[in-house]
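General statements about sequence and structure are easier to judge against a single worked case. For one protein, we set the task of working out the structure tokens from the amino acid sequence alone. The sequence in question and its structure tokens are set out directly beneath this paragraph.
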Amino acid sequence: MAYEASTGGASPTTDNYARYVCEIEAYERDTEKWVDRSKKIVKKYKDGDNEAGKKKRFNVLWSNVETLTPALYARDPKPVADRRNKDQNKLARVSAEVLQRCLSYEMECNGFPSAMRNSVKDRLLPARGVTWHRYDPVIENDQLVSEKCRVDYVYWEDFGHNVARIWEEVWLVWRKVYMSRAQLVKRFGKQGATIPLDHSPKNLKDEKLAEHVKKACIYELWDKEGKVVAFLSRAKEGLIEEKPDPLELTSFFPCQKPLYGTLTTDSLVPTPDYVLYQTQAIELEELTSRIDALQKALKVVGVYDASVAGLATILNGGYENKMVPVTEWAKFSEKGGLKAAMDFMPIKDIADTLLGLYEARDKVKQDLYEITGLSDIIRGNSEPSETATAQQIKGRFAVLRISDSQTEVQRFARDSVRIQAEIIAENFSLDTLRAISGVNLLTNQQKQMAQQAMAMQQKAAQVQTGQPAPPSQVPPEVMALMGEPTWEEVHELLKNDVLRDYLVDIETDSTIRADEDADKQSANEFLVSVGGLMDKAVQAVQLSPAMGPLMGEILMFGIRKHRVGRNLEPMFEKTMEQLQQQAAQPKADPEMEKAKAQMQLEQQKLQMQA
């Protein structure tokens, strides 16, 4: 696992070292049984105890995991950054667009897809998946060359935290990082040369080779109470390094809440899914082994009278439409012929038992699918005679069984994206944001220069009165951006925790699709309902101004029933008042208007005659 971190930590303290080691040991005692059980589950998933393939198995664990993996995580989510209140705030709109483009790039290029898939696989096997986020700047010759926001996958055994009942009680998290001697020296300087290499690869029998591939197991601990990050090796007394919070994240931890399997509120030690159906899985394997044994016994085996020549060759083949000679046929016939000379082992009982075992295995499989929620619709099985509506109902029922797990995976992905967004907003320089996002904006200096050029042009036009206006010195593409925020304003908003949280909302497309569909449906219902009410209200007011107040109250009553119309209530009220005022104005009598027009015409004729 690659590892980079900024240097310059505070002086380590021995007290914290002892405290952290005690927390690590307490966690190991608390999770010892879970770790042993999870190792066995992973081994069973890989069929590790049957490497030679001698035993016939029914690996339902592998089948279930491979079926649920795409059901829980079918594709990588896309980040969505948008204005929280959907108002006409240009600065929030542009800032959200910049942040979304940067997130899309970082998620695609810096480990997010792989970390997510590995975490989902860990969720389905040992029942806990973890990712870790870090800010990775590249500095050469004291100059910032590039910046990355990397997402690391943490192996399920390499993550830990203080013993707690629920995640909100966790104040200390850590991960194990395995570093070679060269990495230790590069990261910790001279102190890295004194750290023992206490980790060797598993199942490595060559001791000489093991010496060359040994690494040091370094614990990276994030202490939320002390707001510090510490590094230690259990093979060396004292902390290697201790430094203040380098990322200043809202949740402090560089990891989101892990992706857990079955949990209760008394412990954060999860229960793997396989444990809940292992009885049925073991029964399936036993039935499969019995079926295999009976299949091997299901063959034609018999005995014959050795004194009768030719009987041994009858079943050996090559005697189709041929006669086999038998000496002393009369004696052979008197003894009962073929029926008396040979006999076969009965296979009907074996065949009946075999059919019974197949039926029993199918029943166990059905019980297992009911426990796990893997219905036939998820596995792609449906009856051709079923209607589309029936299949849709089955599909919805099947999705309900795993909807909680899908929602949890979506939460896990969204929290990861939010941590990435916070790291990008807090740490990335303006030049990096501009290069990654590609958004076209002006800087403060460019905007000031354009404003000065426009002022000079306006002054010259005032002096040259009556002369043609001088040509504009500001390019059209710059003029088009004068009404947009500047890069400095966007950068300032992104670095401001309060404003960013107030104005910009970070989601993933998988978590907002249902909300968007519901909002669209509500908006359509609102437009249809209000449109009809508006037509009727306008017509009623035009026919009878006295109906105006009543129709206005009816219209507002209908609008207030729609949550999406809450922001439009003031505008509707103002419009209804204007309509009522217009309707209340006295209308001119058509006959009177006609008489006035006739009088004006007569007056014009008299004037002409005069």
